[in-house]
Amino acid sequence: MKVGIDLGTTNSAVAFIDEREAETEFPPVHIQSLPQYVRAGTIEPRRTLPSFLFLGDQQYVGLYAREQGALVPTRLVHSAKSWLSNPEVDRRDKILPWDSQETGRILSPVEVSARYLAHMREAWDQSHPQFPLVDQDIVLTVPASFDAEARELTVEAAREAGLVKLTLLEEPAAAFYSWISSHLAASRALLFDGQTVLVVDVGGGTSDFTLIRVARDGDRVEFTRTAVGKHLLLGGDNLDLTLAWLAETKLNKQLAIRQRSGLRRQCTVAKERLLTEPNLDKVKIQILGAGTSLIGGTMETEILREEAVELTLEGFLPACDRADRPKEEKRSLFRELGLPYVSDPAITRHLAAFLESTPAGPDALLFNGGFFIPDLCRQRVADVLEHWYGRRPVILENHDLDLAVAAGAAYYSFVRSTGAGVVVRGGLPRTYYIGIDSSADRLRTVCLVPRGSEEGSTLEVDREDLQLVANRPVAFRLFSSLTRTDDRLADLVEFPPDDPELHRHAPLQAVIRFGKRTGERLIPVTVGARLTEVGTLDLWCKSKVSDHQWRLEFQLRKAVPSERVKPLTVIGDEVVQRALSLIRESFDSLRPEELPGRLEATLGLGKNSWPLSAIRALADVLLELADNRRRTPAWEARWLNLTGFCLRPGFGFPGDDFRVEQTRRLWAQGLVFPNQVQCEIDWCIFWGRVAGGLHRNQQVDLYQRLAAGLLAKKRPRVNEHLWREMWRTASSLELLPSHTKTDLGNALVKRVQTKDYSASELWCLSRLGARRLFYGPANQVLPPSPVARWVDALLPVPAAAEAVALMARRTGDLTRDLPPATLELARRTLAQRPDADRLLRLLEGDEPHDAQLMERIFGEELPSGLVTLLDSTV
After folding, report:
1. CA 665, 668, 674 angle in degrees (round to 5)?
2. What pTM does this model have?
3. What gap in Å lies between CA 607 and CA 423, rounded to an integer?
4. 432-465, pLDDT tens digit by residue?
5. What span, in angstroms and rounded, lies between the C-alpha atoms of 134 and 124?
6. CA–CA gap between residue 712 and residue 703 (Å, rounded)
7. What is the strand order of the sheet 76-78 is part of?
8. For 117-165, what is each residue's pLDDT tens digit?
């Protein structure tokens, strides 16, 4: 059996080809029925499986889960596929249901995706007991724009569901295969050499654009994918949210989460009917009262066909010009689901940007995804393309748009194993580069894997000027691009350091050991790469002077903590070397208090102006000389203070993972002079400064050993300055469990209410209750309820205005934002403060994250050149 699985955002499906029926080049494609609960106690087969998971006393997957979730939305998991590609959260963490209030967040996006796949596997095994799914060749589809991180997570989910014989296929290509498999005769009449086919795939949660070029020689036809669009979180879910907003506006009432979820489900049904039934004028919407009984009454409104059509065509498919581009907004209007949807919902404007490098326009058009089931949506896109290029593309019709991807995947599985039929070539949709050098105005790379490289191929870069640095900390930097098409294997390619088209993968930080000597060595190497069957990369370096080979295992799932590192101040290498020599000599020739001043004189800048590259070089030497802190208490305090300053905030520069791991050895050793108050203070400050580079377990360990006494019923006898720094360090640990951070915040609020507080306590509260974290993922933000109580307590305190603005700051995500009543009260209170304009901009999320604001959030000035997660707009 050759099996295709469409793991969709809104609906999933399974199709297959029975090789025993393959008497012709195009055997029939069958759709696997998927039994599921359709109502309580009733299981029926359906052709699709709604991608919904309900977490009640009994867990349900599919249709009944979706309907129950409309009644109890906080127990419903949906859009798991979109969460797999969401870089704002830890996608392997238990973060779903995102808006859960009853069950808690108990599943990761990977686990939820595995549940859907396991349900489909069980349905298959019941129907085909002699052909278990685990033994079949499976093609699993993903959006064409999925990057390597999202692809790896999809593969991980499949393996968790017991599916290992796996190949990934891009959804637009699968839709095209579906058309090929059922239109052989039409393809011979419609397709010509040099023709360009545009696949527009808009599903429930994503939009994908792909260009395919046709090459024809007589009856022989070949297809090559030539372009893939960016990953766009934009689809039918957004239209459903828009209609729900319209209905709620008509009701003129603020709805509860449960009511809003039920409303959205009704709007989904209303949309489907109003856009596909021309004679239907309107659909009635009914919302139950918010109480536990019907005493509150039922609210009613209606959505008119003309309203649904106008919102669809003018909001999502506007008749724009070819030169129009997506509007850049600071925040998406669609954050109810907690996902970073694109700010501009106009699909046609995103399409115009994608076709910018295609001046002649597409010759043919193939639609895919549930968004295009209504004919009026397909016709609007064709109208827009005709307006842009002066000719209407031929529309290639695919029947059953909700099944086309699964059917095409099954056909591809058959073609791939038998060699029959037609293959769409194109290989890897990205070009990959490995960094070799960078400066303030350029980023030098070598092309490692050109776009279009086929799965299973092995490539090797052999350049005379390529050398591996051994026996010291290094960072291998991997980049990729969806837009560059002409770069070839081993090409030297330079980019501007802030090129927006270049995707930065998390760097691999390591020490490559070579030889018996410990000193730095340069080893001539070749770099090899293999594109696996699931679209991910295996990389390695091979020595030219020995038989050594080192595998480079990039953590493709790991978020990049800094969008870019662009030094604002450049210090010459020779000046930095003099500063490094000064540090090495200082322990014999200087008093501890003299070292910072001498370094400032050597570098020619005050220490707050030292750029990131310079302070990390200083940190490397200080870490190398860590044992010198044992000389005297003064030297230990100075070493801790200066090293922590040079490492802050623990991330943001290549090699920081390795540096922070070196500091963990100090943690095991502890203080050399533990009874010296200044050493204790600087020890605490040191760990607060590098906290951003510690993972969750390390932060918990740090808290338990350093700051657990903060919540003691009776305050320990601790120096006042040390006590303050213990609180600041604890409040900087953004990865602590929610209950720990809540307990800390409650204790601080009590101090404010008893007027036993200073500016430091307010700063700690603003860090603990922040709606947007400094380095932690969005799933580590505290729930709104405890923070709302803190804000209520701080509103009467004039000195707490900025802390209130940071804790109440709007994100557009209902699961993070404070209740509307609290926000409105905060807005009115802040409007009465002397700096009301700035505070209100901060409250609304409009205040830019300049250096001054970053200094207040972090607690001290950040290194020159550091760009943090807070600088990226959502």
Report:
1. 115
2. 0.80
3. 60
4. 898 887 665 788 899 988 887 776 678 888 888 7
5. 10
6. 13
7. 59-61, 52-55, 76-78
8. 999 999 999 999 999 999 999 999 998 778 778 888 999 999 999 999 9
